[in-house]
Amino acid sequence: MNDTTRSGGPRIAVVGGGITGLAAALRLRDRLPADTEITVYEQSGTLGGKLRTGSLAGATVEFGAEAFLTRDPAGGDSAAVALARRVGLADALVHPAIGRAALAIGGELRPMPPGTLVGVPGDLAAVAPVARPAAERDADGGRPLLDPDEDPTVGELVRRRLGDEVVDRLVDPMLGGVYAGRADELSLAATMPGLARAARVEATLTGAVRAAMAAAPRPAGTPVFATVNGGVSRLVAAAAEAARAEIRLNAAVRELLPVPGGWRLVIGPTRDPELVEVDAVVLALPARPAARLLGGVDVAVGALVGRLDYASVALVSLALPGPPDGAAASDRGAVPGDLSGFLVPATEGTLVKAATFFTSKWAHLRRPDGTLLLRASVGRHGEEHLLQRADDELVSAVHRELSGLLGAELPEPVDSHVQRWGGALPQYAPGHLDRVAAARAALRTAHPTLALAGAGYDGVGIPVCVRSGETAAEEIIKVLGVSRA
Question: Is the pTM of this model over 0.85?
Fold first, then answer.
């Protein structure tokens, strides 16, 4: 048994080496005295969590999160953009060359309607080519749509006010693309907080959508998304370097125990554990492993955190040969050159729920030889059994389905890659925000030097995870009562 004793300045453990944990470590480094010891413990052999850049047919592509929002809800730079600037990657940010997407409905690709909030329309006429809203249901009843503490599922509210087609053809596929979840199971307050706030004031759903969109304006011409030229793993590496933390890979934290003045971490194999004592901990793990560690701290908090369910997905990337010699570079065959990708409603009965045309969407990924790079997303919550097939079977199924959805046979891929993300995407059931608030309140009262951070609490997406890590770090800084002079 190894026992690491304490000396020097504050010692802080960040458990989890995804972008949340790295953002927390960097904020701690920026704000705390220079002699602060910050250690990041990551169970796997690599940093970054769901941010993973790889190679396909010699090209750099994303096997995990592909891009991030450029603006925060208040209208400023998103936390991901701010992080990129902080670590010297501002000049590496690039934006989509094509932003048009489609919905695969009834054997054709229909343009994604404008003016919706995650598929919920503020203008019913705009969605008519895709869905037939039950407009008569959204009458002004003279009172707000929701009570102050009401948190329905997204599907429950939208079906009640606009009918099934809007949910099935618009809202559900958009939520499926983000969360791999279903509209009838996901909390409105957790997945669409701006709409939830507006629905507690407005008397119609379309009015609430317009109010929510007006509260988060985006200047004309401002790009919605960005990514990092060379891969989002560059953001991971740059954040880790800037944090100047000790990085411990393949270091599983098996127990977290409160001790006088701080915390004891039990790390590594049971036969030869390492014991480390620290002043504070940022727990930046998915909910289930976090809940197991919290069981040794506060059983009730562990139970609250552990209630969160997750969906598994697979991302199937294909490299397709370019157009034949002599063909125009714009001739992409079955792959539309004017679309960034498409979503597939679950009612279409396909394995594929979304597709992204990398070489159409991102100009920096276009190849001189015309090779087409695309990625399909497979798997929804409750459909994990559909992923229980070999990689080559998934590739064949995706290739076959994409050919059908695009209406023409795709050429055989010259390269492919299957990335499986088991238990990757949190499924926020109604009441999620209240459960998180209760868990954090209990910890602040009894264990203020332990902070929770990550997608399991605050939402998905790189900016939300970065902000969650930074907020947790700020809580620790405040409790420790020390800061950089």
Answer: yes
